[in-house]
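We include the entry.

. . .
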Amino acid sequence: MAVTFYNLKSESGLKKLNEYLLTRSYITGYQASKDDITVYSALPSVPSVEFVNVARWYKHIDALLRISGVSGEGSGVTVESSLVAEEAVATPPAADTKATEAEDDDDDDVDLFGEETEEEKKAAAERAAAVKASSKKKESGKSSVLLDVKPWDDETDMKKLEEAVRSVKLEGLFWGASKLVPVGYGIKKLQIMLTIVDDLVSVDNMVEDYLTVEPINEYVQSCDIVAFNKI
């Protein structure tokens, strides 16, 4: 069952997460998974010790990401920026309903034994093409990636570094949440989530061809894939 959290940048959102983690070690299941990574990445900074359960969980996930990574699939989790959940509507949109009714009315007028007109043949061909295209889209999977982007030194402008990283635009590439993580000696690294369409984007090629070449390599020293999970 999918879990949803709201506005984790607010005190109320953190309080809800803290209550949720009171009896849990992970967001879902009994091992670290991509659900933990999703929530971890949605937090803008290290949680305050005021939220003791969140702080405990965050420290544990952070250690796993540094040492071995996280490979569990999870059950599905959503993080919303608003405080109020939108109600799910089970009925189809009005426009779709009307379209369905219109199709039903048209069916009443169809001569099952008559010859197809040119318009009917054209419509049938368009429907077949749409179904074929839809099938191809479904076959193309997606992956969720957590990337570490490291600067040259403590004098690197991290705001410009992130702007440079997000300036990479590729078909099938979607940048997500990010945050700065202390490394040591005053240096911080950028940790950023991204979603890719597997058939369109290779993370290795993106790093090699875009993130570590001019002009972005003025800010970026190296990149590491921390976690890679199929969606």
In short: The CA atoms of residues 146 and 193 lie 5 Å apart. Residues 84-100 have pLDDT under 50 and may be disordered.
